[in-house]
Design a protein that fits this description.
Elements lengths: L19 H15 L7 E5 L14 E4 L5 H11 L4 E7 H7 L1 H10 L3 E7 L34 H7 L4 E6 L3 H13 L4 E6 L11 H6 L1 E3 L9 H8 L5 E8 L6 H5 L16 H9 L6
Helix pairs in contact: 1-6, 3-4, 5-8
Length: 289
């Protein structure tokens, strides 16, 4: 029976009324509750931004890091204790801007973590300048004549880098998006879910109505294992596809490749310490077997 153990209720939430973050919070809490995970086994990790505040309102462990630096912390947490479900949650500025280089190398490593990107195509916390995913022509208090740069396509980028799970959802479709996040958490390997959401204060272009009119759900017969087809779908911009766009099962994870869990699945903190070998390491006389 599903219980709402992950739901946290606070009288003061630091988002504007109508913000898409409220819906994403509801979706994430619903996915975690539906999976019947133990809150003690879940670690939420984020950086800085309005979206990065979302884990504050989830009853689970939480690590709040520096701007753009959530992925290294999440990778280390999972490597230290693979029994944990590690979920990164932050915005398009934090993950794709400040954290863009970390994203590339996290994909290469394939740690068993889930990355949820709140993609509202604007910087909300710092009051409305263009983000990496802002559309060309979008006018902001900083880009007075409109954005001139090509918008980043995080889904196409992730597939080009051969991420093992890539999906895109829309916070206005709660059930569909909840299913994507649940599938991402169940997936063994690096999973990116780009979640489209409006910023009702600073982005009057990409509204709830805009996302509804400019997205479509992938058809049931779509083959998510076909990487070439997935890349072609990811490049569609007139109508943006929603769903699991690419998934490959069975790939070794970063934790697998470390070798320290090959003969002993226990996390490091549960193992005894060989103090003689540790002292040799400190003395500089330790030799690999």
């Amino acid at each position: 029976m599903t219980t709402n153990v992950f739901d946290a209720h606070y009288p003061d939430i630091a988002w504007c009324p109508g913000c898409g973050n409220f819906k994403i919070l509801e979706i994430v809490q619903g996915a975690l509750n539906a999976l019947n995970l133990d809150p003690c086994s879940v670690v939420m990790v984020s950086g800085i931004g309005q979206a990065a505040k979302a884990p504050h309102y989830v009853k689970a462990n939480f690590f709040n890091g520096l701007h753009g630096r959530a992925l290294p912390a999440a990778t280390a947490i999972k490597a230290s204790n693979p029994t944990l479900s590690v979920i990164v949650e932050s915005g398009d500025g934090d993950l794709y801007g400040e954290g863009g280089n970390h994203l590339l190398h996290a994909i290469r490593r394939n740690p068993d973590i889930t990355v949820l990107a709140h993609d509202n195509m604007v910087y909300g916390l710092t009051k409305g300048q263009a983000s990496p995913t802002s559309q060309k022509g979008f006018q902001t208090p900083v880009q007075l004549h409109g954005v001139t740069l090509e918008p980043m396509n995080p889904v196409a980028l992730a597939i080009a880098m051969n991420a093992s799970f890539v999906a895109r959802g829309f916070c206005g479709d709660l059930d569909h998006c909840r299913g994507l996040i649940s599938a991402a958490i169940r997936h063994r390997g690096f999973a990116l879910v780009d979640i489209l959401q409006p910023c009702v204060t600073f982005n009057r272009l990409n509204t709830f109505g805009w996302f509804k009119n400019n997205t479509y759900a992938l058809e049931e017969e779509y083959d998510r294992s076909d990487r070439i087809q997935a890349f072609a779908r990811a490049l569609e911009v007139n109508k943006i596809p929603l769903g699991i766009i690419f998934q490959e099962e069975g790939r070794p994870t970063f934790e697998d490749n470390l070798g320290i869990y090959e003969n002993d699945p226990r996390p490091l903190f549960q193992r005894s310490i060989d103090r003689d070998r540790l002292q040799q390491l400190l003395d500089g006389s330790f030799a690999l077997d």
